[in-house]
Amino acid sequence: MTMTHIILLGDSIFDNKSYVGDAPDVISHLRSLAEPDTRATLLAVDGSRAHDVPEQAARIPDDATHLFLSVGGNDALYEADILNMPCRSSAEVFSELSDRAAAFESRYERALEAVLEPGLPTAICTIYYPRFEDPMAQKIAVAALASFNDVIIRQAFSRELPLIDLRLTCSEYEDYANDIEPSDQGGRKIAEAIIKMTKEHDFGAMSTN
Description:
The structure is a single chain. This protein has 209 residues and is an alpha/beta fold. The protein contains 8 helices and 5 strands. Helix 6 (135-158) links the parallel strand 4 and strand 5.
């Protein structure tokens, strides 16, 4: 019997233990939901950005069979100053946002190249929306994240990689432990999406769905 070994790479979307207390984190949910012939290893590190992923990818074990990458949220947070940037016109904001998204794409491409280097079945995730209490802050964040998610979605289609859209996976208030981290409930939903992708997606078909 062939063992399935799922590897999680990226940031606190997967490495969310410090935000759920005694409740199960994503990797715990994944291990409890997986079939007996499936293992799961967490290489993702809370706080990581795209440029940290190659170091994680260097530690992918030899018996890995499936890789899942969720990164970019911290890259977007690092650029949050743009939301309050003084400007004379909206064109200046869009121009600056475009430049920062282009810089993120360069970092994300390098991260993805490192993850894809072993030649294993790989899926990537979008950045989910935050859960800000202030409606205006939420609206602005969702709009700004579109540029970063566009990078990820474009990479998925150009490389024919399956994509988990976490904006749809975590869509309820209770899916969040705080403004930006997945809760026990959200973590379980993420784990379920990973299990479903591993079991049902035909990685050999080279398609994004």
